[in-house]
UniProtKB/TrEMBL annotation:
It comes from Acidithiobacillus thiooxidans ATCC 19377. NCBIfam families: prmA. GO terms for biological process: methylation. It is an enzyme of class 2 (transferase). S-adenosyl-L-methionine binds at T142, G163, D185, N226. It comes from the Bacteria. Methylates ribosomal protein L11. The gene is prmA. Its EC number is 2.1.1.-. Gene3D superfamilies: Vaccinia Virus protein VP39. This is Ribosomal protein L11 methyltransferase.
């Protein structure tokens, strides 16, 4: 095997990501990528940024050895980050990353990374690459929301995406025919990522992004919230107040064991349907009651 690269993989807590990225750059990493950590654990926080991200860093073999990479891990104090080092042939690092994120279909919508393509007869294409902000469609929580939007958008709706992350749900809604969308997130990095993705997909003029309570939001015809179950519980009155009577809500980021608590919190405001399931995750959805 002609080793060209050493790939260091780390599971990095969100609050350490920026520091780790700087340390890797200073250590001579040629490329650094943060990916969603696909797991059935409730690892992400409100705003849809993972509490832990899969960080992959590449070091040129001509300048680094396997021993030097392990020494870096020890010196930086990353022993608890699940560090692993793998040898790669030239360009294998590209294909190994890209094969994890092929184009994916969600009804008539396809989510397409830059290295893949959708079938020629595809009507709706959302172009998006993996990044630091949660949301590529790969995780069941996002997948369920995309299917929900695909089946409920008729055209001309006002959408609120509460915890927008990469902006994938708001952008998908606009591509599917929504008139306007509002994305809310607690993390300014996610808002920047979402706007960049909106520009790439030609819908930036119809998307408004803000931190919570920074800008008054209109009543939504459809509100989606793909965030942690704890925030969903505390936000029930807020999200209900943002949804017009007769409008739809879709709640994701919920483990099966958390369904009952979420249902009890939202039942006073919504007529909830039977939950939808994918792997260990649940999607709760329903229509806003009048006068509650």
């Amino acid at each position: 095997m002609n080793i060209a690269w050493w790939q260091l993989s780390l599971q990095v807590p969100a609050d350490s990501a920026a520091k780790v990225e700087t340390q890797l750059q200073e250590a001579g990493a040629e490329a650094i990528t943060f990916l969603e950590l696909d797991t059935s654990e409730a690892l992400f926080i409100e705003g849809e940024l993972w509490q832990k991200s899969q960080c992959q860093a590449l070091f040129a073999a001509e300048n680094h050895s396997e021993a030097s990479i392990h020494a870096l891990v020890n010196m930086a104090g990353w022993q608890n980050y699940g560090a692993s080092v793998h040898a790669l042939e030239d360009q294998d690092w590209v294909s190994s990353t890209q094969t994890q994120f092929p184009a994916r279909q969600f009804g008539k919508l396809w989510v397409v990374p830059s290295w893949d393509q959708a079938p020629q007869d595809t009507r709706y294409e959302l172009h998006l690459d993996p990044g630091q902000a949660f949301g590529t469609g790969a995780h069941p929580t996002t997948s369920r929301c995309l299917h929900f939007l695909e089946s409920h958008i008729q055209g001309g709706e006002c959408i609120v995406d509460y915890g927008c992350g990469s902006g994938i749900l708001a952008i998908a809604a606009l591509l599917l025919g929504a008139k306007e969308a509002y994305g809310v997130d607690t993390d300014s990095i996610a808002l920047r990522v979402a706007m960049s993705n909106a520009q790439r997909n030609g819908v930036a003029e119809r998307l408004r992004l803000s931190l919570p309570e920074a800008t008054p939001l209109p009543l939504a015809d459809i509100l989606v919230a793909n965030i942690l179950a704890g925030p969903l519980l505390s936000l029930a009155p807020t999200l209900a107040a943002l949804t017009r009577p007769g409008g739809w809500i879709a709640l994701s980021g919920i483990l099966h064991s958390q369904e009952t608590g979420i249902q009890n919190a939202y039942a006073p405001y919504f007529n909830l349907a039977a939950p939808q399931h994918e792997e260990d995750w649940s999607l709760l959805y329903g229509q806003r009651k009048s006068g509650d």
